Prior knowledge:
alpha+beta, 4-stranded mixed sheet, globular
Amino acid sequence: MKKYIANIVNHAAVSEKSIERYLCFRCTVHGGVCLKYSNPNQAGYPDRVMLLPNGRTIWVELKSMGEKPRRLQVERMKKLASLGHEVHVCDSKQSVDEIFNGL
């Protein structure tokens, strides 16, 4: 039973939802707004778009720890990057921290 509970606790720390909450918290602390992006007619775009002070915009695809973006997601992120947008994939709180450490 203890192992089962430990697995639940560990999953909660590395789940996409947990990482998403952390991203939104960090964005708010930096004076930004972290918007959920959803376009039913265009699948594959990143989950969140952060609007930061001084007009900086960062797109973020969130994944549970160790997961990778699907092929369509990779293509959409390449397109955004080719248009000059900053795009990141975050699968941990540490990867979220790396975005903000670079600001």
